[in-house]
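[Automated response] Your request has been received and processed.

Submitted sequence:
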Amino acid sequence: MEDYQKYLDPRVLNKISRLDLKARLIVEGYIAGLHKSPYRGVSVEFATHREYVPGDDLRHLDWKIFGRSDRLYIKEYEQETNLNCYLLLDVSESMAYRSGEMSKFDYGSAIAASLAYLMVQQQDAVGLVLFDREVRKVIPPRSNQVHFNAILKEISEAQPTRQTDIKAISLNMADRIEKRGLLIIISDLFDNPLNILKGLQRLRHRGQEIIIFNILDEAELKFPFSRMTQFDGLEEYQDIITDPRPLRRDYLSALNNFTTILRRNCLKERIDYTQISTGQNLDVALTAYLATRLATHKLGRR
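Generated structure:
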């Protein structure tokens, strides 16, 4: 059997150009790692019985009826649409940064495509929002293969540009989305943390569940620079050339403070926050999504 788990590694995944293939290999690689399918957790509702015919799945036989009547009947189910979900993918200029195999945008695109694929398989309705300082594209949630292909097309054609304004995007989506559901925000969150939180609070007050994947490049997390370096300004900031060594401690302290503020306040608002490095395997995102999805379903917080 092919070792699908290797496709969870960004270094391997980067060699695959087609986004639909990436999504399938990521999800199947994750399932292979679990040795079970997450699709089994999809909520189903009993509908009716019908008489058994050769070839039917024996797991769905109703043995109680067989015991009473000595006849074989199959339980038929109607699969529920579990969820109404929007994937919010940041297409601002800072997402184009890379120090390794994949840029933050490449990595975020793979996460978005994989989650869309997984949700369509689960019969969840999934939509897409591409944003920077404005909403660039909205695809309303649906659950079918044609719709999934439309989502992949928009992601594939997107080009990271302009500044980020997550507060404005959150307020826009809070007014735009009428039905309660799940919003998955995939972004480096390069914005004022207090402004970000104000926007997220509006979404929570409208009854939306929120998962955040805060994607950062490994160099942004570790600041490994040790010689005179030119730092390219993104999102309208100027380029600078400087010795990074005196800056490292202050930079890492500021990053830690930024993350702490986000994590603490997301916890307070019951928002699931996960920080991901572009060097990590992509099962991190799938695990976080499925864990949150399971908890949400059990608690009835849909």
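Summary generated for your ticket: The CA atoms of residues 130 and 137 lie 5 Å apart. Residues 44-79 form one domain.
If you did not submit this request, please reply to this message.
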